[in-house]
Amino acid sequence: MDAEATAAQRPEARTASVRPIAPLVALWLLLAGTYLVLSVSAPDQRLEPVRQAAYLLPFWAAGISSVLIALKAAAHERRLLRALAAAIVLVATSETLVSARVVLGARIESGWPVAAEVLTVAAAVMMIAALARAADLRAYSTLARVRHGIDAVGVALSVVAVVLVLVVVPLSREGVFTCAQGVAAAAYSGLGALLLISVAANFGLDVASSPEPWFRRVLGGLWVYALATTLWPAWLYGTMVRQTSAWDAAIEVAWMSGMSLAFAGMLARLHEGVRPSASVLPLPQRMPRSHVAVAAAIPLGLTASVVFSIAAGATSVPDGYRGPLFVLGGAIAAVVAVRQALAVLENRRLLTMLSTDPVTGLLAYRPFQDALQTELDIADRNGGTVALVMFDIDGFRGLNEECGHEAGDAALKAAGDAIACAVRSSDVVGRLGGDEFAVIMGGASLENAERFVVRALSEIRAVKGPSGAPLQATAGIALYPVHAGGRGELMRCAAGSLFWAKRHDRGGFAVYDPKVITALDAKDEIEHLEVETQVRAVRALAVAVDARDAATQFHSKNVALLATELGRELGLPHEHVRRLEIAALLHDVGKIGVSDRVLRKRGPLTAAEVMHVREHPVLGERIVRSSGFDDVAPWVRHHHERYDGTGYPDGLRGERIPFEARLLAVCDAFDAMTSERPYRFAMSPSAALHEIDCCIGSQFDPEIAEAFIALMGRKTPM
Q: For residue 146, what are the CA distances in angstroms to 128, 152, 284, 634, 647?
């Protein structure tokens, strides 16, 4: 998808607003008013069918409209909408059975039809399962997903305990129902709490930015229905004890209101035919400020529920309820214990992730720096030395480009294992990033370090690369305190010697020599200055292109930030990421040849205008080549190609599209979708990620798109 051109061709899909709901509001007022008047007035069996018809109409309206939507739903949304449709129809059927019983003259307190109870519970379970799946917790770890599930179960158990003590037990004292019926009634409220949590996980707080108002209404309706279900004991109390009270009518009107709101959303969906944003990121992703408070409140609330349940069971409650209350207290205590165990495991996992490189299993950059500082402190106290050895895999970038990143990761793992086999038991091995490794040798002399390097390089050459040729590496050595007086200086000395060896003795090694490295540093400064000058010119050109349209004034910069983050996520070397940043800054430079009239047009583009816009990648390639970035030019040319071969300008398909162009396509589409344009509203990040997810394999490279979704999911702490 050309995120800009495609959205411009179908602005009606993004700007179409939901039709006014005034007629639906009037209908709801009529039905609710009729139901309330007939409920609180003197009972008249002749008017009972009218009252029940007013009550049932919102349920069946929501059920029928949801079935119609499910029948015409797209493949990616079909499972969710079919599950919701089936659940709403089951609810409507259950309510119809109860209403029929009332119309025929049976009293509610004489019992509900068993079929109605079964259908209601089955519908609630289906809704919970469908909405929990739609919350899409793929960005979370398995432990985090389990922890969120444990939290939801714990909250539901707490609701059951509270309802049991505050509502069910008082009703049982009046002989309303047996202990088993009371426990079942409290459990139904717990089921409503689970449904409430499932809706909240999809609803979040930032839905105002969502481009799908119809789905917000459906979620809002389900939320009202779930809240009324959680408060169902008030309905029970009003119906069975306070038969002249309006409590039962209030809860039933809330159920009607929830279904009416869901029907309003379904009706809008039928009218608009817009694809929903059903798969969103989890609740903490959407309300990060309050997540800390929620994370702290849940264990405190569960602990309070344990005390409440056990204390209530030990005091003045009927004997039949003491057992269930003690069991509830024990269950909530078990939830607290399991949750704490999961938190410990999750913290340990996060610590391992932070300290260990995920590709090689070696020490990661920051903990490696800490280990180096520790060794230097020991050397200072004991008057010893520390040798630092850096390795760089030769030709690794070409290996990645030819054989793919999976093969590159395998080569890195094999090289890391080879280095680890050559070290002493007291040495520390780490990966600094990209294809660079380092070894800390506490108490070692230069001779010890040189013998180790010879052994390690030999071990690396014994490893076969993806192409069958042996791997080769180059190394640099620096010694503390002979060559440097601190950690940063020692790192620079080792890096300088490695750089010198890469230039003069590739496949070998070099020991830091102040005379050689000093002369080399001056040359490096000049080269660095030239590169920085080029990059500054690139940034200025990108700003000039974006400034032509106020709606895209930060687009190139945003895409560059996303591309560099994703490049690091995929393990690209530092220099590769640097070139990727340049490509991202320049990816739209060809739009300098697109007329302002077309760029700023608010309505749909004509076929000729679309062709005019699609010329910008080719022009961009020519401009980039003239700026001296020949290696970057193909990435700019092909960043609008599609993985299925239907993109432009050359219709390349799959792996024939440069890897970097496929990466830029994902970042470009995400920023375009989440930025407001004159012809459409901005999508929420959740909706944009869902759109990318839906286009995996057709528009986007599956591996890159999945990595991007995971990266954006981890940007907000859990």
A: 16, 10, 15, 44, 40
571, 359 in Cβ contact below 8 A? yes
User: Would you say how long the chain is, in residues?
Assistant: 718
Core vs surface per residue 81-106: b (16+ CB within 10 A) or e: bbbbbbbbbbbbbbbbbbbebbeeee
CB 572 within 8 A of CB 397: no
Q: What pLDDT score was predicted for residue 536? A: 55
Per-residue pLDDT reduced to its tens digit, 152-206: 888 888 888 888 777 777 777 766 667 777 777 788 888 888 888 888 877 654 4
> Alpha-carbon torsion 261, 267, 268, 269, what sign?
positive
Q: Which residues pair with 691 in a beta bridge?
A: none
- Close Cβ partners of 530 (under 8 Å, ≥ 6 residues apart): none
The CA–CA distances, whole Å, from 286 to 278, 693, 715 equal 14, 18, 12
User: Quick count: other Cβ atoms within 10 Å of Cβ 606?
Assistant: 12
Confidence of residue 712 (pLDDT cuts 50, 70, 90): confident
User: Would you report the helix, strand and coil content of the chain in percent, each value rounded to 5?
Assistant: 70, 5, 25
pTM: 0.51
Round to whole Å and give the CA distance between 664 and 100.
61
As a whole number of angstroms, the distance between CA 195 and CA 295 comes to: 19
The β-bridge partners of 433 are 436
Task: Identify each DSSP E strand in 611-672 by its residue range.
Answer: none
Residues 693, 709 contacting (CB under 8 angstroms): yes
Residue whose entry in the numeric block shows the structure tokens 């490096």: 524
Q: Which pLDDT band holds residue 376 (cuts at 50, 70, 90)? A: very high
Distance between CA atoms of 599 and 628, rounded to whole angstroms? Answer: 27
Q: How far apart are CA 41 and CA 54, in angstroms?
A: 15
**pLDDT per residue over 154-167, tens digit each?**
888 888 888 877 77
**β-bridge pairing 436-442 and 428-433:** antiparallel
From the number of C-beta atoms within 10 Å of its C-beta (0-12, 13-18, 19+), residue 349 rates as middle
Burial class (CB in 10 A: 0-12, 13-18, 19+), 334: middle
Rounded to whole angstroms, how far apart are CA atoms 545 and 559? 14
- Structure confidence by residue, pLDDT tens digits, 212-242: 677 778 888 898 998 888 887 777 666 665 5
